[in-house]
Amino acid sequence: MAWPPTADEFLRVRDTLAWVAARSPYYRRVLAAAGVRPEELRDYDDFRRRVPLTFKTDLVANQRAEPPFGEFLAAPREEFASLHTSPGPIYIPRLAEERGGTAVLVDAIAAMGVRRGDVAHVTLSYHVMPGGLRLHRAFEESGCLVINGGTGASRLQVEVARAWGATVYAGTPSFLAHLGDTAREMGLDPRRDLHYRVGFSTAEALTPALRRELEATFGIELYDHCGEAQIGPLAGECRAHDGMHLHARDLFCEFLDVETGEPVAPGGTGELVATQLGPRALPLVRYAPRDVFQLLAGPCPCGDAALRLRFVGQAGAIRKIKGVLIHPAQVQAVTSEFPDLGRFQIVVEQAGRYDRARLRAGTVRPPAEPDGLARALADRLKQTVLIQMDVELVPEADIPEAAAAPRFSEAIVDHRAKA
User: Fold this and answer.
1) How far apart are CA 283 and CA 23, in angstroms?
2) How many other CB atoms are found less than 10 A from the CB of residue 212?
3) Averaged pLDDT, 330-344
4) What is the CA radius of gyration of the chain?
5) What mean pLDDT comes out for the span 26-37?
6) Which long-range contacts (CB under 8 A, 24 or more apart) does 36-43 make?
7) Rounded distance, CA 271 to CA 262, Å?
8) Domain 318-418 classified CATH 3.30.300.30?
9) Do 295 and 308 touch, CB atoms closer than 8 A?
């Protein structure tokens, strides 16, 4: 899809909305309360301003009130082909005709250079959760031999991957690191005795430091990917490794300013809002998982014209500093490049009419050249986060544990509200 959307893309959204309104009791009620008749929507701006957002809390509350599937359903139970569950729990039935993101994943797999005949080792959970099965189907359609590894049993997984000569790893980067440690405990050299060539990294942050470590350990080329349990796969890296291409075929994706709700342009940062296109057992319209992305401007060297994204973090932890939306996860991606650094805090103050930002970077050990480290960190922050921050090095013990990932609840100290 294009962003901003074309007229043809909007017509597909409007047709889907009419289908959903005719079949889903939940959306029929929500649209009626908002005074929305799908056939009367004129363009995308009309759709965006008039059709309410759907949040995960709405889905959870409705399924609790009307168990097990709530009033979102747009198809009778006898037409279900499978059932997935995501944390909550949230129940996600699937029609036989729903592809479940398979076509999107096949595109993402091809962009990694995976070839027919590769042996793919899938280590996402196959137990209740949808991730493992989604990837399994996509690798099969790509012509791969698939090992349904799942999670845990790391020694057995190493043995199977070695015996079958697995060339593709698919799963979290942390489990790949664990497989490397396990292989060494078994007296194996991960680079020599395992044969991973490429890796589909997903479900966790792939920091630059972790990417370097894993690529050195295994001699593997990792590709970062992202998605969401309810809406499925969203975007993935190509061989240029410069952002993730939006691969959404069966999703209409919006990227909206977290403060104003207005569409953001390439180069800006916006919150994802997704509408599932086509028939669904449990359709979602303008679903907002609270994920925020930076939209990268300019063409990709690979030649793919699809919009490129970089995941920023959850909307709740974001602050606008010096006119730029900043998430602590962006800063962590920079600090993780420096082995001497651990937790941090961003202190924001009002200096006259302007914001002033200071990074209190916690050191896990006394740095050999503290002034040089502070300068290098400030330069990398300016390049990556796009604002200038003063850097203060302090012992990591001076930074509260609540400032750490994944919640980052005390990572930003904003004194502007007191000014």
Assistant:
1) 10
2) 13
3) 92
4) 23
5) 97
6) 38/14, 39/14, 41/14, 41/17, 43/7, 43/10
7) 10
8) yes
9) yes
